[in-house]
Amino acid sequence: MKNTWMKWASLALVLSPLAGFAADYPIKDKTVTLIVPFAAGGPTDRVARDLAEAMRKTLGASVVVENAAGGPGGLIGAAKVAKANPDGHTLLVHHIAMGIFPSLVRNLPFKVETDFEYLGMINDVPMTLIGKPQLPANNYKELMVWVNANKGKINLANAGLASASHLCGMLWQASIQVDMTTVPYKGTAPAMTDLIGGQVDLMCDQTTNTTTQIEGKKVKAFGVTTAKRINTPVLKDLPTLDESGAKNFQVTIWHGLYGPKGLPADVQAKINAALKLALKDPDFIKKQEGLGALVVTDKRVEPAEHKAYVASEIAKWTPVIKAAGVYAD
Ligand code: ASP
């Protein structure tokens, strides 16, 4: 009898994904909130909601998403997490802006390098250059004819300074040497609404937000921002911007999970373990990959590697931002 009981107990320990970690985390009946620093319905929100669903299973707790949009690069949401109680119940899902903040935002209210605990990277996502459905152009070559005929009148939507869409739009303008008027939103979900409505002309955005709109012919697609084409049913025939003539144009967005500085090491370990299991969840992988995102399978899922990667991104983007001469206060 005793033996049988012991067998079941040890089997339960093996099956319980997070056995052996901080016993009091998550705190019973307390929700884990993933802060998204952009509007609901956009790509950062998308990855956070998919992740929340997967982590509900792996953490065994209620995991919800809260949108705290505003400020350059989602500064408001990021600052909220930097100041949060370090108990593991307030976490941040954020993107490449973590690598751009230090060079782009003057008087940053936190230090990217030291005011967060790095809990692991989530995914890499290509971007697409898309346009309003009313544009006469149907491919990149025709787009450039339209751009050259409309210089000085073109609007480019983005999610505000230091956002992924801003970075991509800035690089594209530099690559074609044409200045456009940028129109900032609190995320690319509201920007997408205006693009579909024809209030703005163009936008760069993650494939996780654009795939469905491209498939539904709600927007026009002009290229992907990666070195290679994206192998999804909707995007596989869309040329890269580089092959279309915007030479050496390459930008990939990544998302990571962060907590406030001071999160106890055992809680960090438990969250990282739950993240790693979530990244192996077939539902999560299917949802992300169907929209062109690649779920991280390499060492960047380890907190130290995540931190080193963000540091390398800061080093990579600092000269680009400085050369572009842009900044935010
Ligand atoms: N894709 C947005 C950006 O350009 C953010 C978002 O709405 O998720 O940074």
Q: What count of structural domains?
A: 2
Order of helices and strands: HEHEHEHEHEHEHEHEHEHHEH
Q: Identify the CATH architecture of the largest domain.
A: 3-Layer(aba) Sandwich
The helix fraction, in percent, is: 40-55%
Round the mean pLDDT to the nearest integer and report it.
92
Number of alpha- plus pi-helical segments? 12
The level 1 CATH classification of the largest domain is Alpha Beta
What do we call the CATH topology of the largest domain?
D-Maltodextrin-Binding Protein, domain 2
What sort of overall outline do the alpha carbons produce when their principal axes are compared? globular
Structural class: alpha/beta
Question: Roughly how many Å is the radius of gyration?
Answer: 21 Å
Q: Specify the oligomeric state.
A: single chain
Largest sheet: 10 strands, mixed
Small ligands present: aspartic acid
- Count of distinct strands: 10
N-to-C span: 69 Å
Going by CATH, what is the homologous superfamily of the largest domain? Bordetella uptake gene, domain 1
Q: Could you list the spans in which at least 5 consecutive residues all have pLDDT below 50?
A: 1-17
Strand portion, in percent? 15-25%
What does this protein look like?
The protein has helices spanning 2-15, 43-59, 75-82, 97-104, 140-149, 164-176, 188-197, 207-215, 241-244, 265-278, 282-290, 303-324; strands spanning 32-36, 63-67, 90-94, 116-131, 155-158, 181-184, 202-206, 220-224, 252-260, 294-295. With 329 residues, the protein is of the alpha/beta class. Strands 1, 2, 3, 4, 5, 6, 7, 8, 9 and 10 form a ten-stranded mixed sheet that branches. Helix 2 (43-59) links the parallel strand 1 (32-36) and strand 2 (63-67). Helix 2 (43-59) packs antiparallel against helix 11 (282-290). Mean pLDDT is 92; it is low at 1-17. The structure holds aspartic acid (ASP). Aspartic acid binds at residues 38-39, 42-45, 158-159, 163-165, 187-189, 205-206. The site of aspartic acid (ASP) has 16 residues, from helix 2, helix 6, helix 7 and strand 7.
